[in-house]
Amino acid sequence: MTNKTLVRAARRTVVAAATAAMLATSVAPVFAQATPPTNGPASVADLAQKLLGAVVNISTSQTVKGTEGPGAVPMPQLPEGSPFQDFFDDFFNKRGGDNDGGSQKVQSLGSGFVIDAEQGIVVTNNHVIADADDIEVNFSDGVTLKATLVGTDTKTDIAVLKVDPKGHKLTAVKFGDSNTMRIGDWVMAIGNPFGLGGTVTVGIISARNRDINSGPYDDFIQTDAAINRGNSGGPLFNMNGEVIGINTAIISPSGGSIGIGFSIPSQLAVGVVDQLRQYGETRRGWLGVRIQPVTDDIAESLGMKEAKGALVAGIIKGGPVDNGQIQPGDVITKFDGKEIDEMRDLPRVVAESPVGKAVDVELVRKGKEMTVQVTLGRLEDGEKLAGSEEGAAGEDNGSDNGAEVATASVLGMTIGELNDDARSKFGIAPDISGVVVTDVAKDSAAAERGIQPGEVITEIAQESVKTPKDVMDRIGALKEQGRKNALLMLASKTGELRFVTIRMD
């Protein structure tokens, strides 16, 4: 079937070539003076020949224990003397003895590249070598070397391996600057698609700064250079032979290339690789804040001219800024001199900063621009703190039992005092203060924003509220100012904060 397909394609090529030759002869006088277009770069053969030796195939094996259960395939019950008995006996014995708890070897293939020939350092994707028992690096000249794991980073999907280069001369490549690459620049991918071995493909950079929701620091280069299964961990080169990306993902309904591939930019990868080589782990900067996007509604509610930056929705207790330097409701617009245009920009630039570094943070607080200096902690330590606490409480603690209004209806919500009865009914933590939402009208503005009974309104337009009257007064004041939306800071029953905007028309 496959051979027939190839033959048909060849026949079409021959016929097309003959037809083209006839047409070219008949119209030659008309187009003799035309300048041939320059479609793509000149031959990349010299560049490919120089780089192929540095790109490696990575094969891994993992021992998987056989298990009973829904995923296990039972040995079929065959009639005595069945001619298929030997076949099934052989198949199931190889799989671990009729699923009786035996084990089997699972193998996988990927790509990588050498960045240090003397030390034998190889870079690849974490998912290529994850959970592997054995890792082998296969070079283009046929040599195979055992590899040891130096370190991995699951957040960026990068792994660093080491082989012993004694007796084998390695070829290395260098990282280039991905920040200088532009949409439309030519790039070359080399890898091990479908286990075929060193394969070269060429394309352009189709897009930059792609977020494919694969991790907290998504900032992928998109390319139409053919990338398939097995290319993972391989390099994406610029036309100077520098690695400006690590191929890591594709979008494909069929599993094959459709011209949408993604590479980790070298600007992000270099720091991770250096840390893995030096420490065997990552040591990222940590600010200790919870953030959410600044939408147009939130920007309008805060009196900002444009929707940009990262809105601080909470502070991690015990974190670097748990001293009031940064507060919930602040909008961070610049970090260490780098613009924060979108929320997702902040985690990346903070993580790329050294632990213990003192940095300037520019922010907007209650309509005023200001700069504060903070000293960064270590993200890996911060994750333990963040995991141990359910959330950060509002800044004002306690409740006001002298409220003039016990309950009220506003913006589709019924609100009431946060007294002992309300805390008991909704299971609200004792250190949360504000006004409790007791009911939300169906199809109301509050319902559209996902507000639920039991949530607590702690601030409106960055002003604390403690009673239903406070809420009514703040809403009235915003309407008098001509505001279209009200910015509410809500606390869950455990104290986790979030901001929502509600229409007031």
UniProtKB/TrEMBL annotation:
<keyword id="KW-0378">Hydrolase</keyword>
<feature type="domain" description="PDZ">
    <location>
        <begin position="276"/>
        <end position="367"/>
    </location>
</feature>
<keyword id="KW-0645">Protease</keyword>
<keyword id="KW-0346">Stress response</keyword>
<feature type="region of interest" description="Disordered">
    <location>
        <begin position="381"/>
        <end position="403"/>
    </location>
</feature>
<dbReference type="InterPro" id="IPR001478">
    <property type="entry name" value="PDZ"/>
</dbReference>
<keyword id="KW-0732">Signal</keyword>
<dbReference type="InterPro" id="IPR009003">
    <property type="entry name" value="Peptidase_S1_PA"/>
</dbReference>
<dbReference type="Pfam" id="PF00595">
    <property type="entry name" value="PDZ"/>
</dbReference>
<protein>
    <recommendedName>
        <fullName>Probable periplasmic serine endoprotease DegP-like</fullName>
        <ecNumber>3.4.21.107</ecNumber>
    </recommendedName>
</protein>
<comment type="similarity">
    <text>Belongs to the peptidase S1C family.</text>
</comment>
<feature type="domain" description="PDZ">
    <location>
        <begin position="411"/>
        <end position="505"/>
    </location>
</feature>
<dbReference type="InterPro" id="IPR011782">
    <property type="entry name" value="Pept_S1C_Do"/>
</dbReference>
<keyword id="KW-0720">Serine protease</keyword>
<feature type="signal peptide">
    <location>
        <begin position="1"/>
        <end position="32"/>
    </location>
</feature>
<dbReference type="InterPro" id="IPR001940">
    <property type="entry name" value="Peptidase_S1C"/>
</dbReference>
<dbReference type="Pfam" id="PF13180">
    <property type="entry name" value="PDZ_2"/>
</dbReference>
<dbReference type="Pfam" id="PF13365">
    <property type="entry name" value="Trypsin_2"/>
</dbReference>
<keyword id="KW-0574">Periplasm</keyword>
<dbReference type="InterPro" id="IPR036034">
    <property type="entry name" value="PDZ_sf"/>
</dbReference>
<keyword id="KW-0677">Repeat</keyword>
